[in-house]
């Protein structure tokens, strides 16, 4: 169902009518025999309530019962997807068989069947389904295959093995985007030989295509061949960099190589706008090239006599990079109007704090909080920024007061509650953090951010692992491909003692997002499994990404490294 919560409310109303002895058929006291739709009402509601409780196995059973009662393909599809999330292979197979019988999206059914086969370890059946998808030539078929391999496989090794066999079978369509996607998947799976094989095939099929050169550079970078990757990028025809999309892509690849200067130089070619100027400033700031950043700042300043709000906001930000705080303040205060006026006021308050003019900073924020002309999000953000500044000042009482005043002005605002919950968690006050997360969920039971944050907090900071799993499962149902949620799922499995299952999920998360916290979690699980050399490699990866990451520091302290 497109909107199960809304549908559930409709079904509640229908059930109330039935419960009151009123027939849905107008004017009939006894009414016709109960139809399939009515028979499906009760199990559908049971499925929705189980889903809201994070009980995926019960939800899958109830939705399958509803699909059988109502002969409904949409309910059968939902039962299949929930059963796959719950790793209930038997029920997923039953639901899929019913879904196929009742009709529906055949591509989605084939993808689900391939996923189920992979879960069972039947790679031959999965290969057959995926080849059928690739050979169909239907719109979106190869995307389904990439999705199954990226998310449906039991582990990266299985996904890589099957990808190699699909390449052997020769059914990948002769489309550049498809080959680029398969190449990107091979790289995310950390399979250097497989990635090189895909890249070589793409070069053969699409000679001279600049996006292929980008894929080659990315493959070389991930294989640790940084100099060769730079040579590939350097050999690109400079005229191609006049195309904005390619210029951004080349700059992004230089950024991944850690060559911020080259990334900035690439962005400087061709027509400029505020986006490219802002990116160039950010890159130069990261490489701490204040000479080049100052030159860019001066170039933009010449043009800023006219009251262009976006340009003045940008100049204020560059001045902040350069730690020219008074100049930044002047630029922010010079933003004359438009939607940029409100972020400029927030940035101005932050700059005042950097200038050690705390009372002025807090007064500016109080003025914005009381400004009836300001948009609600700007006024709310003023409370969040004030709380942050109070925290930086080590003024815990002031931080809490800012949140309290913000919530008085914006009762139960989810952003304020979420920020305060994170503050409680940093103070190790888990009970209050939980209370704020739960307030968000009262108003919005489907908030994946709050579900995931609360579930992770309970898994990480308490022993309430089963409850944590139910919350994370609710988030997984809404966003099964979200790397942060997959990480939380892996972490709670680890806390439940399911180390191998945890490692599978955490590695899947890391293939989707190279994040220091995910790398730290993988390292800790490997360490617990006695694979200490491999664990150290992941800890090293986490250090490269962010040496100050809290999860990394806690993991290293725990293992005594």
Automatic annotation (TrEMBL):
InterPro entries: CellSynth/LPSAsmb/PSIAsmb, TPR-like_helical_dom_sf, TPR_rpt. SMART domains: TPR. It comes from the Bacteria. Signal peptide: none annotated. Pfam families: TPR_16 (PF13432). TPR repeats lie at residues 516-549. Keywords: Repeat, TPR repeat. This is Tetratricopeptide repeat protein. It comes from Agrilutibacter terrestris.
């Amino acid at each position: 169902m497109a909107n199960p919560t809304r549908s559930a409310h409709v079904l509640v109303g229908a059930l109330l009518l039935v419960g009151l002895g009123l027939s849905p058929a107008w004017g009939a006291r006894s009414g016709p025999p109960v139809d399939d739709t009515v028979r499906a009402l009760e199990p559908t509601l049971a499925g929705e309530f189980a889903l809201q409780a994070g009980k995926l196995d019960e939800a899958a059973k109830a939705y399958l019962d509803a699909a059988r009662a109502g002969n409904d393909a949409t309910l059968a599809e939902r039962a299949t997807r929930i059963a796959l999330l719950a790793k209930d292979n038997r029920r997923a197979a039953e639901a899929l068989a019913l879904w196929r019988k009742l009709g529906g999206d055949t591509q989605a059914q084939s993808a689900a069947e391939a996923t189920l086969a992979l879960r069972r370890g039947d790679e031959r059946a999965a290969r057959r389904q995926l080849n059928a998808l690739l050979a169909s030539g239907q719109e979106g078929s190869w995307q389904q295959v990439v999705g199954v391999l990226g998310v449906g496989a039991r582990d990266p090794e299985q996904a890589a093995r099957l990808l190699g066999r699909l390449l052997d079978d020769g059914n990948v369509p002769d489309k550049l985007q498809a080959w680029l996607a398969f190449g990107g998947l091979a790289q995310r799976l950390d399979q250097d030989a497989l990635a090189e094989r895909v890249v070589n095939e793409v070069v053969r099929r699409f000679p001279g295509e600049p996006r292929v050169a980008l894929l080659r550079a990315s493959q070389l970078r991930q294989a640790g061949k940084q100099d060769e990757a730079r040579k590939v990028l350097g050999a690109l025809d400079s005229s191609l960099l006049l195309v904005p999309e390619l210029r951004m892509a080349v700059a992004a690849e230089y950024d991944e190589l850690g060559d911020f200067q080259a990334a900035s130089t690439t962005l400087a070619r061709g027509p400029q706008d505020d986006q490219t100027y802002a990116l160039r400033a950010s890159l130069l700031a990261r490489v701490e090239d204040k000479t080049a950043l100052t030159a860019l700042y001066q170039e933009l300043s010449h043009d800023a006599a006219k009251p262009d709000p976006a340009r003045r906001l940008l100049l204020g930000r560059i001045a902040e990079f350069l730690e020219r705080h008074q100049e930044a303040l002047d630029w922010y205060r010079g933003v004359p109007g438009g939607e940029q006026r409100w972020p400029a006021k927030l940035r101005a308050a932050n700059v005042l704090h950097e200038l050690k003019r705390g009372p002025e900073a807090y007064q500016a924020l109080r003025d914005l909080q009381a400004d009836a002309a300001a948009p609600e999000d700007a006024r709310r953000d003023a409370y969040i920024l004030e709380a942050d500044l109070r925290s930086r000042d080590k003024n815990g009482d002031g931080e809490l007061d800012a949140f309290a005043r913000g919530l008085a002005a914006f009762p139960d605002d989810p952003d304020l509650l979420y920020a305060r919950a994170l503050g409680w968690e940093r103070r190790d006050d888990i009970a209050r953090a939980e209370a704020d997360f739960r307030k968000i969920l009262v108003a919005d039971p489907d908030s994946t951010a709050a579900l995931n944050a609360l579930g992770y907090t309970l898994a990480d900071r308490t022993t309430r692992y089963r409850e944590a799993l139910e919350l994370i499962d609710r988030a997984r149902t809404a966003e099964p491909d979200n790397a942060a949620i997959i990480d939380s799922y892996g972490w709670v499995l680890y806390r439940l003692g399911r180390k191998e299952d945890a490692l599978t999920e955490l590695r899947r998360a890391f293939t989707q997002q190279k994040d220091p916290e995910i790398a730290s979690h993988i390292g800790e699980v490997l360490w617990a499994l006695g694979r200490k050399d491999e664990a150290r490699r992941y800890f090293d990866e986490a250090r490269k990404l962010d040496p100050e990451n809290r999860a990394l520091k806690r993991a290293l302290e725990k293992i005594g490294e």
